[in-house]
Amino acid sequence: MEIEAKAPKKEPISPESRSGKVEAIERAAFQLFHERGYGHVSMDEIARSAGVSKATIYSHFADKAELFASLMRANCSMTWVRTELEGRPVEDYRAVLKEVAESYVAILSEKGPMTRMVIAEAPRFPEMAEIFFASGPMASRGALCLYLERVCAAGLLSIPDCDQAASQFFALLRDDIYLRLMLGLPIDDPAAKIRKSIDDAVDLFLRAARA
Amino acid sequence: MEIEAKAPKKEPISPESRSGKVEAIERAAFQLFHERGYGHVSMDEIARSAGVSKATIYSHFADKAELFASLMRANCSMTWVRTELEGRPVEDYRAVLKEVAESYVAILSEKGPMTRMVIAEAPRFPEMAEIFFASGPMASRGALCLYLERVCAAGLLSIPDCDQAASQFFALLRDDIYLRLMLGLPIDDPAAKIRKSIDDAVDLFLRAARA
DNA sequence: GTCTATAGATCGATAGAC
DNA sequence: GTCTATCGATCTATAGAC
Q: Which CATH number among 1.10.10, 4.10.1110, 1.10.357, 2.60.40 corresponds to the domain B90-209?
């Protein structure tokens, strides 16, 4: 019964039925790129790490830059702040802010290597930086801004500029811990440090915004 | 016997008597590195841009990595927050914070390309990242922390954790404008955006810290 | 589609003349 | 110290067999 052997074959980058080789290439490339940076990774290494030949890579990606850009595009366009804010009641603003903070910090940690790559290669891939900014920080700010405006309209908080305030709230979360993460420096007891960072950010923000 | 007789000869990077060629190499290398990144710059390009031969570069720097590290070390160890805080009276805390913010943002803009390089090459030059963090963000935080403690001791502000607050204050200044700067994205009317960013950061911080 | 083998170009680093 | 010329290694990308 080797009928099904040749069945799913033709799609270059079909939604789901992509060849296992392509996925292996993407996984290996992403890992190597974020470990050592675009300029320090060769196509030979990617091929060896993915368990395929170099020619196989070039049959799926035009060149090294296209492979890199493809990985970045796919990851940049992922949603950043996953917490859904539209349905949340305005009275829970402290809990909501904390959830948003936790979600954001989790994504910062998870996306740290990619952020580093985007920053590093921004001069050579400007459109990638634009996608990253629009789908990441800008989208997060917009979502939080809308919620803050509702809370202010209910008279629970007093914020002069909700859009700026949302930007400030996320900025508060990118403190020294985040810098050390970006720089790849060691952090002792990261869980506790992150928890304190989040709590202090919410506290500072709400002390300033109390009605 | 005459170990010290050849005094003005042996220094690798003597304080002031460096050849004009060395300076040209350093200037050209720094510019190229921050324009295109370590991995995308060749020694041939540096030599051509500096108007010297490649062999001349290698007579002053062991290899490419050493040239890069040398530039980073020199720039990382520069003072970050130049405003002297020790002599400032506690009553002027709003003006002092604004000055610190302006100083910090100016340095962020000025050091933007270098920060990008440090982040990009952190995996390959870990000790460089450590120097950068210690001489930059950490030193700034320490200086501001001491001033905030004095203001709190005078009863003018109420801050639970001055060290954390200093970290938060600088984090507030690294808002979306800073992100766009890091990503090399265009900013329209940067002067006005930066002014507003600083004013809003000081306002938020002081509203939260009022006694 | 996937492989092996290699072309073609570039880069880091050095040798040797002056 | 500085140059020209070049070596050897490495890298991107492709050709051709299966």
A: 1.10.357
Chain B positions in Cβ-Cβ contact with residue A208 (cut-off 8 Å)? 203-205, 207-208
Chain A residue with CA closest to B39: the answer is A39
- Flag if B164 and A137 touch (Cβ within 8 Å): no
- SS3 of chain B: helix, strand, coil, percent, to 5: 70, 0, 30
**A196–chain B nearest CA distance, Å:** 9
Is the domain spanning A17-73 CATH 3.50.50.60? The answer is no
Chain B nearest-CA distance from A147, in A, is 19
In angstroms, how far is the first alpha carbon of chain B from the final one?
69
pLDDT tens, A28-41?
999 999 888 899 99
Cβ contacts (< 8 Å) between B184 and chain A: which residues?
122-123, 126, 129
CA–C1' A55–D18 (A): 14
- The answer to whether B176 touches B140, Cβ cutoff 8 Å, is no
Question: With 90 as the cut, is the pLDDT of residue A148 above it?
Answer: yes
The residue of chain A with its CA nearest to that of B205 is: A208
Cα-based angle A84, A111, A76 (whole degrees, multiple of 5): 75
Q: Give the global pTM.
A: 0.86
Give the dihedral of Cα atoms A133, A139, A145, A151; nearest 10 deg.
Answer: -150
Q: Which one of B35, B130, B172 has the shortest CB-CB distance to A171?
A: B172
What are the boundaries of each domain within chain B? 16-75, 90-209
| Token couple for A191 | 């869980």
* Interface mutation target, options B175, B187, B194, chain A, most CBs of A under 10 Å: B175
Percent of chain A with pLDDT over 90: 64
Q: Does domain B16-75 have CATH number 3.40.50.150?
A: no
Give the pLDDT of residue B78: 64
pLDDT in tens, B112-168: 888 888 888 888 888 889 989 998 889 899 999 999 999 999 999 999 999 999 999
B65 CA – D5 C1', rounded, Å: 24
